[in-house]
Specification:
The chain is of the alpha/beta class and 438 residues long. Helices cover 41% and strands 13% of the residues. It has 2 domains: 209 residues, D-Maltodextrin-Binding Protein, domain 2 (3-Layer(aba) Sandwich), CATH 3.40.190; 199 residues, D-Maltodextrin-Binding Protein, domain 2 (3-Layer(aba) Sandwich), CATH 3.40.190.10. The protein is globular and about 70 Å long.
Length: 438
């Protein structure tokens, strides 16, 4: 289907520290000094703070909205990386100044905001412009505070699949047809590692089964509802069955020589796509354009997409409306419109952002979507099926820090520095404890 993914939110979508960031600029000057929310004919400039490239501007959605609402102009303020954006947002919330009319929030941060700053946001669950039934229930619940207040409406999500090289699978004696490939590991991430063991027995050249153990960990741990925190909000990652099982699978992949020992989104990772150094990678929809760009013409007709072992989510964001904004009514209308099924379908078609609106899955732009570079894989169906069965994850305020540290400290020490799994785990725990003052 579409061309390569332009969105630097490939990096914003919460793998281990790959989040891009929030536009924390000062409130864009409003065309009117009147603090009401913009009646008929009143000229209103709405500012929207995002991190990375959300794609609204690129897909022409701002222009479309401005044509439908001649009194509104939209100004987007984008910060490249979430690690810069989110602290700035927290500062603006604390100071109650410098906020945009709409603020994007990354999924790894939404729980913390719902827990400590819910009073600073409009309750979008009570707004008539917002239709709860349009959204996947688990996505809707991610932005819900304890008292039921909904501080954000869902933009994209990242249902996982597995992208794989048909040519390398064939040479290693594995099936190549996507349904058969999916059956190799259906129902259990340990079967994905089993497939890696089979691959390595006949691995062509110096290739490896997968890019890195952090990808294995991320896929596996994301398929659980409870991982770093329990329902009461207690931090449990040190004793979590989800974390332990996923860590053990990652270590198995390292010890079996299945990984190319790469850190995702590093230059070496990009080059490995071009060189055909690994045969599979855990991939949400937003990664497909990235793979096409990095693997290039040489990889054309080689890549395909199969269902992941279990439904899991990697990334996604929300649009929120600060309660102190001068144009709340207009901001709510815009946030609701941008996240409505029709606009989410357009964004998927043009920017590969997979909808969090389940109603969008029945629209032709999603339902019938295929990706030419990936063997005309029916990506609309593959990722819609995965999205519907993703568990409602229990999120916690430090999920981002925990995930990044396990991947970038613990796993990489084992994978790239030759440390033992026990040494890697202890290093990760120490770094996490230092970061979150446990």
């Amino acid at each position: 289907m579409h061309g390569s993914r332009t969105r630097s939110s490939s990096f914003r979508l919460a793998a281990f520290g790959l989040v891009a960031a929030l536009g924390g600029g000062l409130l864009a000057g409003c065309a009117s000094d009147d603090s009401d929310s913009g009646g008929d004919g009143e000229k209103v400039e709405l500012s929207i703070g995002v991190f990375g490239v959300f794609g609204y501007k690129q897909a022409g959605l701002y222009d479309e909205y401005e044509k439908q609402n001649p009194n509104v102009t939209i100004k987007e303020n984008s910060t490249e990386r979430n690690e810069d954006y989110y602290p700035a947002l927290l500062n603006h919330l604390s100071a109650n100044s410098g906020l945009q009319d709409i603020q994007a929030v990354e999924v790894a941060n939404i729980n913390e905001l719902a827990g400590i700053q819910a009073d600073k946001f409009v309750d979008l669950g009570k707004e008539s412009a917002v239709s709860k039934d349009d959204f996947l229930p688990w996505k809707w619940d991610q932005a819900k505070a304890e008292d039921g207040k909904v501080i954000g409406v869902g933009t994209d999500i990242g249902p996982m699949g597995v992208c794989y090289r048909k040519d390398l699978f064939e040479k290693a004696g594995l099936p190549t047809e996507r349904e058969e490939v999916g059956k190799l590991w259906a129902g259990d991430w340990s079967k994905y590692v089993d497939a890696g063991e089979k691959y390595m027995k006949k691995a062509p050249g110096k290739t490896h089964f997968t890019d890195g153990a952090a990808g294995v960990y991320n896929g596996a741990v994301s398929s659980y509802a409870e991982k770093n925190y329990d329902k009461s909000g207690k931090l449990i990652y040190k004793d979590s069955p989800a974390v332990k099982t996923s860590w053990d699978l990652a270590m198995r992949s390292v010890e079996g020589g299945m990984t190319a020992k790469l850190k995702q989104f590093d230059t070496e990772w990009d080059q490995a796509y071009a060189n055909g150094d690994f045969a599979s990678v855990v991939c949400p929809p937003w990664m497909l354009g990235y793979i096409k760009e990095k693997a290039g013409d040489k990889g054309a007709d080689q890549w395909d997409v199969a269902a992941a072992p279990k439904p899991a989510n990697w990334g996604g964001s929300f649009l929120s409306v600060p309660a102190s904004g001068p144009h709340k009514e207009e901001a709510v209308k815009l946030a609701a419109w941008l996240t409505a099924p029709e606009q989410q379908a357009k964004l998927f078609e043009k920017q590969a952002s997979f909808p969090s609106s389940q109603a969008a899955y029945e629209l032709p732009a999603v339902k019938d979507a295929k990706h030419e570079y990936f063997g005309d894989a029916p990506i609309g169906k593959i990722f819609s099926d995965a999205a519907k069965d993703i568990p409602t994850a229990i999120l916690g305020p430090k999920d981002q820090v925990i995930g990044e540290t396990i991947g970038n400290v613990g796993i990489l020490q084992v994978e790239q520095q030759g440390k033992s799994p026990d040494e890697g785990w202890k290093a990760a725990v120490k770094a996490i404890d230092n970061a979150i003052d446990e």
